[in-house]
Amino acid sequence: MAMYPHQPLKSTPRRSFHIDYIDPLGGPGTLVMEGLSVGGTLKDAERRFPELTITRVYLQANGLKRIPS
Description:
By secondary structure, the chain is mainly beta. Helix content is 10%, strand content 33%. The chain has one domain (19-67). The protein has one helix and five strands, in the order E-E-E-H-E-E. A hairpin with a 2-residue loop joins strand 2 (30-33) and strand 3.
């Protein structure tokens, strides 16, 4: 793994607050982060917010169903 000058020597701690991922029946879905709606897929969220830990995933079909992680 290449080291770049702007990278810290040890990794920064991950911020760990929940992200609710709501997927309307297989559609692209909406990320809801602490009440803030962020468009995109779960993979998009992992790319855009690598420091966050996604702890709750839901599918929206007849109400919210929790997906075990």
